[in-house]
Specification:
heterodimer, A: mainly beta, 13-stranded mixed sheet, eight-stranded mixed sheet, 2 helices, disordered N terminus, B: twelve-stranded mixed sheet, six-stranded mixed sheet, 3 helices, 32 strands, about 5% helix, elongated
Chain lengths: ~500, ~500
């Protein structure tokens, strides 16, 4: 290997055309770059380059633009010049294009003897390149075989590029150097938030750090850029059909807030500038801190939802839910961009251990958050359907009334009564706690509404709260290492 | 053509080793001083099923202590020797005087393609192997095309395409670009007023780990008690070994978001063809390549191996259980090495003389009966000889036969808290059967007879669990049903070589 290097160094001056740039990364042609990155695979790139423009029509090239540029979004601003046309060139330099553009030119054909390796060179004129290269060598016409001969071209055709390049034809009235501002949208960028929450259960507090995680898969590195992150997805692919998004079942305790965070905003979106300048390298995932709150109040709760009046043959673990607020007074005091909250707790040795994670949407300040971190090993709920029987409601529903008037007679009123059919379902919820501390489990029974809008609870061993027509909630206290049985009767029309 | 690719890569790697020293303010932390690893089970695996050793879907929290010398001013610290499966967004670095300015995971890897792309417009050496006895010749050249498809090079003769005309060309680069790394590298930027030595803590989640509990139940000759041994088996498919790690495993359901796992970035390959046809468009970004799972040659009888160990030795090291919120943490009390692509077993518990009821269970739905299964039942209490949290896992049951122990069945146990019933379903019964006949059907009432037979020369316990539509009422004639877990239970002892009957009536309500 050393020999090769020595040889390489020795032959370097022999090559007149070789660039003798330093061996670090090639200098980028980018100027002063600002990136505005949205959540949905989109970024606005603003690139101010210092350019010396001569008077009249000239074609200017802008290399080192994003490889995933959306060329239709390019705008250019500079004083004393106007755009005649702009192109984003995909006319890449390939052997095929090289040959196409060389039609009519004279090239050198080198043949190598397969036995001895001896080379013979001949001048040839390329006649055509249509599914095969036809050349004239001296007074004969030949079809080139790529294994038998190689072609040396005297020059590269103009207009073919090694990389996708933006080119703009400008009509300049005043010559000289000036800043030229290029802006365009690019795909291949995205960001989300990642939160680290250290939960101290005994103290009822969490420490939360927020990190912005941004990805650059645009194929291009942007050096020393000003970066601004917009917490939102600007409606790029929204065609009117996607306005309705099914939401995940709402964990009770989640409530959107109504406070405004003390942050810059852009219309509906909060914006998060990154302090200073940073290099956003290609294929890089970068994290920058934006939030650090210590000692915000937080509580743990247990939650179990039985979606239907159904039996479970095995006890089901209750969800462990972490609750906290983003309000100014009693919480994190900030708006939270969408991302993942990872929750840690210290083990017996004081080392933080991961206890679960959950995703949050864009969360305004003042919101209450209830995040399921996992399922409790020691706290379980077993709903059991004990009985289901038809009962006499003792209630007659007046379902229709009409009056019949015949000529010459008094009006006759007809009332039709119908007996209501009710079913009485007796549910037992066995809530067990194998922990050495008492707990309270929030048990939710869903599926009560079921179209009839007439479900009643004639008896329950713990007073419940009807959260909606469909859901009833009980706060079930369970002693340490004990169990509590909740028995509820539901009278329903189905 | 692939030889060109291969050689280009080889040259690049060789040259990389001789790359100049790293730049100013760049500190490399090669390895942790100490490390602790907490292994979590695969989120989607039921706790009573075995892990897939060929494709571990659990994860680990790795916490490392590292000592670095940081200079005054801005500095970049690169971390080497981290787990290959790390989730970069989960990395936490603490202990720096001025905190962390930014964290980066650079996945622009040194690959034949990236090397070629970065060397665009710069001089390289073209080593040309001529056919036949022509030998090898080296020329200076400048790369003039992008990495998509073919290499167009400028030589002193003019412009040409590499590896055409019977020549076999390879490209030698003088040095590798500095900002390409061999593997995805986690780095942080920090600032310090003075140069100092700091001990920092780096923690992150990494995929490619898993663990399970293996239970070995040895029935005692009395048939009513058993010795229960529980083992923790933890496995890693990561390529990094963690030596002398403080190790813990964590039981319980931990919520995970759907994180793309195993998105191991790879440099793309460079394919240089001497082809004169129109080229396909540039390739899309690389797909999320799942890292190939290491080929673990596992014997299918690994549970038997466990059992033999359990019998042979009193476990010197038993994990210590502690609570962690609503999860259970089992700490290995001595430092152990969590080796790459390996598994390890540590004892969890040994309980002797556990009360264990062996019975046959049939599930009944109104008028039809399913297969009869063998089952073991106990309760997780001190009174029964247990009374400890039981993380789920596969169960192997052995029975004595003369002096030998025979594998009597295999089953699974889900996570069981203290005080819960423990039921372990084993294999299908061959000597105990159950069938249902309809004796009478009138209006809304059907009379049915459940017959259980026993072909064994000993009496057996039998239990039918009768489930029914909630609107259907049941009445047993001349027998008593108990209600448990929302079902009606008929428990009976079938005499040796005998039968037992239950006649019951089902009445549908309108």
């Amino acid at each position: 290997m050393r020999k090769v290097l020595a040889l390489a160094a020795a032959t370097l001056p022999a090559l007149a055309n070789a660039q003798t740039a330093p061996a670090s990364a090639p200098p980028s042609a980018q100027g002063d770059v600002s990136l505005t990155i949205y959540n949905n695979d989109l970024a606005l790139v603003q690139d101010v380059r210092q350019m010396n423009l001569p008077t009249g029509r000239t074609r200017q090239e802008f290399p080192d633009v994003s490889a995933t540029i959306r060329p239709e979004t390019v705008t250019l601003n500079a004083s004393g010049t106007g755009i005649v046309e702009q192109n984003f060139d995909y006319d890449l330099l390939t052997p095929e294009k090289l040959m196409d553009k060389a039609v009519g030119q004279t090239v050198t054909v080198v043949r190598t003897n397969p036995a001895t390796g001896a080379e013979t060179r001949e001048a040839a004129t390329i006649l055509a390149n249509n599914g095969g290269t036809v050349v004239r060598i001296g007074d004969r016409i030949e079809v080139l075989n790529q294994y038998g001969a190689r072609v040396i071209f005297p020059s590269l055709p103009a207009g073919l590029r090694a990389r996708p390049t933006l080119s703009v034809t400008l009509d300049t009235t005043t010559p000289g150097s000036r800043p030229v501002s290029l802006s365009y949208l690019s795909r291949g960028f995205g960001w989300k938030a990642d939160y680290v929450a250290l939960f101290d259960e005994a103290a009822g507090k969490i420490d939360v750090q927020g990190w912005i995680t941004l990805n650059n898969n645009s194929g291009t590195t942007f050096g020393q850029a000003k970066v601004l992150l917009v917490a939102g997805a600007v409606g790029q692919e929204n065609n009117g059909y996607q306005n309705y998004r099914p939401q995940r079942p709402m964990m009770p305790g989640n409530r959107p807030g109504t406070q405004s965070a003390n942050r810059e905003s852009l219309g509906d979106f909060y914006v998060y500038p990154i302090a200073g300048r940073t290099t956003v390298a290609n294929a890089q995932q970068k994290q920058v801190s934006f939030l650090d709150v210590a000692g915000a109040p937080a509580t743990k709760a247990y939650h179990f939802r039985n979606g239907w009046l159904q039996n479970q043959t095995e006890p089901q673990s209750a969800d462990t839910v972490l609750r906290f607020s983003t309000s100014r007074e009693a919480g994190l005091g900030d708006a939270l961009p969408a991302g993942t909250v990872r929750v840690y707790m210290r083990d017996a040795r004081g080392q933080p251990q991961f206890i679960g994670e959950n995703g949050i949407g864009h969360t305004p300040m003042g919101s209450s958050l209830a995040l399921k971190t996992g399922e409790a090993f020691d706290v379980k709920v077993q709903p059991m359907l004990d009985k289901r029987e038809r009962i006499d409601s003792g209630e007659w529903e007046r379902s229709s009334r009409y009056r019949v008037t015949r000529p010459g007679q008094t009006a006759q009123e007809v009332i039709i009564d119908r007996e209501l059919v009710f079913w009485r379902t007796t549910m037992t919820y066995k809530v067990t706690n194998a922990k050495a501390t008492p707990v309270t489990v929030e048990v939710v029974q869903g599926g009560l509404d079921n179209w009839w809008h007439d479900t009643r609870v004639p008896s329950e061993t713990i007073k419940g709260e009807q959260r909606s027509a469909d859901e009833r909630v009980w706060q079930v206290p369970v002693p340490a290492n004990g169990e509590t049985t909740l028995t509820v009767q539901f009278d329903s029309r189905y | 053509m692939s030889s060109l690719v291969r050689r280009a890569l080889l040259s690049a790697l060789l040259l990389c080793a001789s790359a100049p020293a790293l730049g100013q303010g760049l500190i490399t932390s090669a390895a942790p001083d100490s490390v602790s690893v907490s292994v979590y089970r695969a989120p989607d695996r039921d706790s009573d099923t075995a892990m897939d050793l060929d494709w571990l879907e659990g994860y680990a929290l790795v916490t490392e202590k590292r000592t670095v010398e940081i200079p005054a001013g801005k500095a970049t610290i690169r971390f080497e020797g981290v787990a290959a499966g790390l989730f970069p967004e989960s990395a936490i670095v603490t202990g720096l005087p001025e905190g962390v300015r930014e964290k980066n995971l650079d996945a622009d890897l040194l690959s034949p393609r990236s090397l070629y792309a970065r060397m665009f417009g710069r001089p390289v050496t073209l080593r040309r192997t001529l056919p036949g006895t022509g030998g090898v010749r080296e020329e200076r050249a400048v790369i003039r095309s992008g990495p998509d498809g073919a290499a167009i090079l400028q030589t002193s003769a003019g412009f040409e395409v590499a590896s055409c005309g019977g020549l076999d060309d390879e490209i030698l680069y003088a040095e590798a670009p500095k900002n390409l790394s061999a593997q995805p590298t986690l780095s942080i930027e920090t600032e310090s007023a003075t140069s100092q030595k700091v001990t920092l803590s780096l923690s992150y989640l990494a995929w490619g780990f898993d663990w399970q509990t293996n239970y070995v139940i040895r029935m005692n000759p009395d048939g009513r008690t058993a010795d229960l041994a529980a083992w923790v088996t933890l496995a890693s498919s990561d390529s990094t070994s963690f030596a002398d790690a403080e190790t813990a495993v964590i039981a319980g359901e931990v919520n995970r978001e759907d994180t793309e796992r195993g998105a191991v970035p790879s440099g793309e390959e460079l394919e240089l063809r001497c082809q004169l046809s129109s080229l396909p468009p540039p390739p899309p970004p690389p797909p999320m390549v799942m890292a190939p799972a290491p080929a673990m040659m596992m014997e299918s009888a690994d549970i038997v191996v466990t059992a033999q160990r359990a019998k042979a030795m009193a476990a010197p090291v038993t994990v210590v259980q502690e609570g962690l919120g609503d999860l259970k943490l089992y700490r290995v009390p001595v430092p152990v090495t969590v080796a790459a692509n390996a598994q390890k077993q540590v004892a969890l518990a040994q309980k002797n003389g556990v009360k264990m009821q062996a019975l046959y269970r049939a599930e009944v739905w109104e008028d039809s009966v399913g297969e009869v299964r063998q089952m073991l039942r106990t309760r997780n209490r001190k009174e029964e000889g247990l009374g400890l949290p039981l993380p789920g896992g596969p169960v192997a049951v052995f029975e004595p036969m003369g002096n030998a122990m025979l594998l009597a069945g295999e089953g699974g146990l889900a996570d069981r808290a203290v005080g819960e019933d423990v039921e372990i379903l084993l294999s299908r019964a061959t000597q105990v059967t159950a069938r249902i006949e309809e004796l009478e059907s009138k209006d809304r009432t059907r009379t049915l007879r459940l017959t259980a037979t026993n072909a064994r020369p000993v009496p057996v316990s039998f239990e039918a669990r009768i489930a029914r539509n909630a609107e259907t009422q049941i009445k047993a004639l001349g027998a008593k049903l108990t209600r448990k877990d929302g079902r009606d239970i008929w428990a009976v002892t079938i005499p040796a070589n005998g039968t037992a009957n239950l006649t019951y009536r089902l009445t549908e309500q309108d």
